[in-house]
Amino acid sequence: MNIFFFHLMPYGDLDLSYTDKYDSAWVTLPNTYFDRSKGTAIYDRYIGELSLADELGFDGICVNEHHQTAYGLMPAPNLIAGALTRTTKKAKIAILGRALPLVNNPVAIAEEFAMLDQMSGGRIITGFVRGIGSEYFASGIDPTLSHARYYEAHELILRAWTEPGPFRYHGRHYSFDYVNIWPRPVQLPHPPVWIPSQGSIETIEWCAAKERKYTYLQTFSPIELAQKNFDAYRACAEKAGYKAQASQLGWAIPTYVAETDEIARRELQPHIEAFFNKFLRFPIEMRMPPGYSSIASTKMLIERKYAVRASQQTIDTLGDLGMCIYGSAKTVREKLLHHQKEMGIGNLIAMLQIATQPAEQTEKSMRLFAAEVAPYLRANASTAVAAE
User: Fold this and answer.
1) Does an H or E element contain 84, and which?
2) What is the reported pLDDT for 233?
3) Structurally, how many domains does the chain consist of?
4) How buried is 25 (Cβ within 10 angstroms: 0-12 exposed, 13-18 middle, 19+ buried)?
5) pTM
6) What is the distance of C-alpha 21 from the center of its chain?
7) Chain-centroid distance, C-alpha 337
8) Is position 21 within any domain?
9) pLDDT (tens digit, 9 = 90+) per residue, 268-286?
């Protein structure tokens, strides 16, 4: 079982009373809420926490891309990944991920990842996403073109990594007379590709296709939905003529470890509730703009996932839904091991810094997780592909 440390780099100093005036922490929240005098210290802290995860023995560290939001201060995750190539030694660096439909030059993305793979000595994991609905308001990209631009950009990037150049590429959305990237990536045939997703039916089917077999990553979802989507991936693999492996499935979950269950609940409560009720706050039309997903996927996500987020969440309801894990090291490892065996996953992506959580709590949780949770999971995790 591979264990990753995931960081969103949130703006933890956000004035949470913003909801008295604004209905979203994304796109429309005035950037005057960001105190520019604090930014340098925030990045220094967060890059330090990611580097600490490498020192503590996590198999990988994860960054991601979001735009115009207090939820995450990483509009350019490649920049953070570049810094991490110099401050880390062993951990994989997973960029989860780049939002392909938002870019007009996929060849530049291929070049960036190739550079990072060389700079890190072959430690890069590439994550390709379409970007959540709000990113289309931030970028001005037509959401009805999301799938088409995504698939075409993906095709072009893989060809740029694997096909000797120069060659021509003329598609519907992108056109180049010369594709000839320098440098080329270290890893062959190319860096591993992971697909983070909210659970789109189309994404699961595409990800599990026999010609790809990409690792599917379920993010911040009720555990019932995560289980259904992992089962759907396995069913798609079986239909395609192969048996999905645990290494093809990953689960991202906010996690907090403290000395006791009582301390963990008390310390985590304000931060996990701020995360779901404040940082993840935006109206449904911004989450799912018309044309962004199929009718079937939109209906499924609204019913199974966004209906949960539409109401005020408490630490107890979130815990009951399996949308966060917290407690003593013993409690956390037992819960995670149970879920791992039920879901048949091979990759755990632990979000160990949550919203407004201060540095001392984050570091405590990281150290306890690394010392008392991770070794237990690695020693006892099931190698079964699916739940018994």
Assistant:
1) helix 77-87
2) 97
3) 1
4) buried
5) 0.94
6) 29
7) 21
8) yes
9) 999 999 999 999 999 988 8
Q: Which domain holds residue 315?
A: 2-380
What is the amino acid identity at position 384?
A: A
Residue count of the chain: 388
Domain containing 251 — which CATH number? 3.20.20.30
The strand pairing partners of 193, in sequence order, are: 126
Measured CA to CA, the distance from residue 316 to residue 314 in angstroms comes to 5
Q: Is the residue at 388 inside a domain?
A: no
Question: How far apart are the C-alpha atoms of 184 and 170, rounded to whole Å?
Answer: 21
Rounded CA-CA distance 201/225 in Å is: 12
* Separation between Cα atoms, residue 319 and residue 310, nearest integer Å: 17
Coil, strand or helix: which one is 364?
Answer: helix
Nearest in space to 7 (alpha carbons), one of 136, 95, 121, 120: 95
Strand ranges for the chain from DSSP E: 2-6, 60-63, 92-99, 124-129, 167-170, 175-179, 193-197, 215-219, 249-257, 325-327, 347-351
Q: How confident is the model at residue 300 (pLDDT cuts 50, 70, 90)?
A: low
DSSP string, 319-332: HHHTS-EEESHHHH
DSSP state letter for 26: B
